[in-house]
Amino acid sequence: MKSDNTIIELKGLTKRYGYGDTESFALKDFDLTIKRGEFIMIMGPSGCGKTTLLNMIGMLDRPTSGEYILNGENVAGISSARQARLRAKKIGIIFQDFNLIQDLPVIENVALPLVYVNRPRTVRLKSASEALSRFHLSEREYYYPHQLSGGQQQRVAIARAIVSEPEIILADEPTGNLDSRSSNIVMEELKNIHEEGNTIIMVTHNPALTVYATRVINMLDGQIDTDIKTVSDQNLPQPINVKIKKNKKSKEKK
Amino acid sequence: MALLLRTHYKLARTAIKENRTRSFLTCLGIAIGIASIILILSLTGSISRLISNEVSSIGSDLIVVRPSTSKDSVTSIVEELTSANSFNKSNLAVSDVETISKIEGVTNVAPIAVSINTVTDDENTIASASVLGTTPEFINIEPLTLKQGTFISDKNKENSVVVGHMLSLLLFNTSNPIGRTLVFHEHRYIVVGVLEKIDKSINFDNVDFDNALIMDINELEKNVGALQVQQINVRAANTDSLAEISSKIKDELVAKKSGDTNFTVSYGDNISHPASTLLNIISGMLAAVAGISLVVGGIGVMNIMLVSVSERTHEIGIRKAVGASSYNILMQFMFESLILSVFGGIMGLILGYVLAFLISIITPFQPYISWQIFVITFCTAVIVGIVFGIYPALKASSKNPIDSLKHL
């Protein structure tokens, strides 16, 4: 049953807000198994628990009850210090509103996750520079975020998410603030990252983007409504022998 | 680990640089507090140095007996400030001098009792002259030199006095008043000697000799009645037996006073502690003021750190989302407040010594520099940084990443 390439397993995950009369569930007995290499799009109406789910997977929030098994380890109850360390190593997060630190130049923003996995400064800047060149932003390294367009900012954010070579990329409506052209660029980048064998979990409102996904989950009231896989588990791209860094500069587009 | 600490340090430095003016003003708050501490340490240090220089010039064979107060410090402060006489209520008596002088190994004994009284000449009246009562042996112990005449002796002590340099000028309008007479408590005394100008109002006797009138202690007691002995100076035959002699003095006096131990017997470096409790009170008050300004400075640091934390809530959220632990955030902000306070400490050190130097121009207090002062300054600054930085840093580190990300 439990195959080797299961990366995330959620069992009865529940997030409750309030008590008694005001009790409401953002997630209710949520079960989900995610395989390595899946590109999952989570859709659903506002308030159905999509973002809460993403925050749970990113360990930014703790469930009221239930299990979260990441790489075979239940991480729902571990200390926040250990969660932070796992987050630094294994999870990259992309936000709708980019969330770049405005006071830091682009390259420092991209290098930020490496601060928390104890890399020396030169290594950090080198990795950040490589990640940026992958997204055709090499000339913008010492720009500040506000000097970039929305699409560029989001690509910086994606570079930040992959710089520490995480296994899982979480994206919360990454195209929500972008025009359609930038949107497409960003989605193409995510697609490339996915093809290298990364697991991506993305929340979106835009049904048109589901063409990129290998699996589309519709949520309703904190539970799974529909769950459609478009690519069989055997055909998922796997990360074996693939490193993000090695594929740099092989991509088109600007 | 060391790597991460360095990163925290760099982050904090960047944050401080971004808010130059604000950071500088915060540092200034700390600097003022530290500067006043430096000033006090430098002043008290230079006073002790003045006195210990004096003690070492007298010789190392000196033993000093002083009364100590058993009262709580508040009453003694009030008494000190309200009493006209600038010495403690003493339990030493004139008769103790004799007791001490009988102890083996003691060569000279001289008490010091000061009474502030009116002294008149035919022309001038000094309303509050320090009249010092002692014995003829006083001159053998003290580093005093007579400009003219002789010190009081056993033969003439009933009617002779010695005057200080300044008092002589004020009273007789001359620096050579030998043979002139003055009136003290309706008794007429002949001036037999004048002291050389000393110009050191701070000494281990706590007497300003330039303005003093010296007479025999029995004579003084006869005139003013109950007399408080402020100090008894003892010169020992040799320096090796100081400990032995001083413990003997202590035992004898305790026995004589039926168990009363409200006095101290000190020798060597212990003598150099300023004799005056007034001096202690003033430096204590200055220290309290310095402490208060340091606390105010510390609150300034805390205030600025709280502002900084709330301004950077969004940044904290981002950092946590990319893998910073609460500890990382805590350290980042702790380093920021530490840098502020240590930098303020360095500014304070410089400011303090500049002030100490300015003071040394108009007073005899030379700036006193020692490694202890540097260590104290550094430790104080670090402690202030930690104490007042911990709360904002904890506040920053305990922020919820999701809420922080929404905070713009």
Return the structural class of chain B. alpha+beta
Helical region count of chain A? 6
Low-confidence stretches of chain A: 241-254
For the sheet with most strands of chain A, the description reads: 6 strands, mixed
Fold-level CATH name of chain A:
Rossmann fold
Strand order of the largest sheet of chain A: 6-7-8-3-9-10
Multimeric organization: heterodimer
- Mean pLDDT figure of chain A: 87
Description:
The complex is a heterodimer of chains A (254) and B (408). Chain A contains six helices and ten strands. Chain A has 254 residues and is an alpha/beta fold. Chain A has one domain (38-50, 79-247): 3-Layer(aba) Sandwich (Rossmann fold). In chain A, strand 4 and strand 5 form a beta hairpin. The radius of gyration of chain A is 18 Å and the shape is globular. The model of chain A is unreliable at 241-254 (pLDDT under 50). Chain B is of the alpha+beta class and 408 residues long. Helices cover 55% and strands 17% of the residues of chain B. Chain B has helices at residues 2-18, 20-58, 73-82, 94-101, 138-141, 165-172, 217-224, 242-256, 277-311, 313-321, 326-362, 371-397, 401-406; strands at 62-67, 106-120, 125-134, 146-149, 160-163, 181-184, 187-195, 212-216, 231-236, 263-267. In chain B, strands 1, 2, 3, 4, 5, 6, 7, 8, 9 and 10 form a ten-stranded mixed beta sheet that branches. In chain B, helix 9 (277-311) runs parallel beside helix 12 and helix 11 packs antiparallel against helix 12. At the A-B interface, helix 2, strand 6 and helix 3 of A face helix 1, helix 10, helix 11 and helix 13 of B.
